[in-house]
């Protein structure tokens, strides 16, 4: 196997150098095993763990949908819980042996509902998105008004079905 590499530089007033590289056959076999190991790690990491956050109603509701299980918890919707919503999320994920980095997609209720709950949950989701590059969907139950039986575990499928835009915040507050 022969690889031709182009490198910027000056050789006899030309602007390119040409370097021939020969890869030993034994190295190719090791490279194949190494690339297979990387592919295995990447496939293992591709588990779709979805976190649903709803702080627009009477309770702060969190649901984690992993490949095999669905977990949920709710907390009283109060000023103290609004201020520590990221701690509630962290505690919930830790109790299920997950970390925020394990989440693939976030879903957050954009209202209508409590101004403080929506504002804080949207702020947390936006911060996670900026820090960890985790995509999010802002949904409203009004987006799914044609659906008969709404369940939190169906929100990811409903966001796909109703073409909810990714990484777009458009809150609905009750005045």
Describe the structure.
The chain has helices at 25-45, 79-83, 85-95, 115-132, 155-161, and strands at 2-11, 14-22, 50-54, 59-65, 70-76, 105-109, 135-139. The protein is an alpha/beta fold and 175 residues long. It has two domains: 2-45, no CATH class; 50-161, ATPase, nucleotide binding domain (Nucleotidyltransferase, domain 5, 2-Layer Sandwich), CATH 3.30.420.40. The strands form two sheets. The protein has a five-stranded mixed beta sheet, with helices on both faces. A two-stranded antiparallel ribbon has the order 1-2. The radius of gyration is 24 Å and the shape is globular. The model is unreliable at 1-11 and 15-21 (pLDDT under 50).
Q: Name the CATH superfamily assignment of the largest domain.
A: ATPase, nucleotide binding domain
Count of alpha and pi helical runs: 5
Radius of gyration: 24 Å
Largest sheet: 5 strands, mixed
At a glance:
This protein has helices spanning 25-45, 79-83, 85-95, 115-132, 155-161, and strands spanning 2-11, 14-22, 50-54, 59-65, 70-76, 105-109, 135-139. The model is unreliable at 1-11 and 15-21 (pLDDT under 50).
Which descriptors apply to this entry?
7 strands; single chain; 2 domains; alpha/beta; globular; 175 residues
């Amino acid at each position: 196997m022969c690889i031709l590499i182009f490198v910027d530089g000056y050789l006899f007033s030309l602007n390119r150098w040409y370097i021939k590289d020969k890869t030993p056959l034994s190295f190719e076999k090791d490279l194949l095993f190494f690339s297979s190991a990387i592919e295995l790690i990447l496939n293992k990491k591709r588990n779709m763990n979805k976190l649903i956050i709803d702080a627009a109603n009477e309770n702060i509701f969190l649901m984690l949908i992993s490949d095999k299980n669905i977990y949920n918890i709710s907390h009283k919707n109060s000023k103290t819980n609004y201020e520590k919503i990221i701690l509630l999320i962290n505690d919930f994920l830790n109790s299920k042996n997950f970390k925020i980095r394990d989440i693939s997609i976030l879903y957050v209720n954009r209202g209508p509902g409590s101004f403080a709950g929506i504002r804080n949950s949207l702020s947390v989701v936006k911060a996670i998105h900026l820090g960890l590059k985790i995509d999010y969907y802002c949904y409203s139950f009004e987006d799914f008004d044609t659906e008969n039986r709404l369940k939190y575990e169906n929100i990811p499928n409903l966001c796909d079905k109703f073409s909810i835009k990714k990484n777009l915040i458009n809150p609905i507050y009750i005045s």
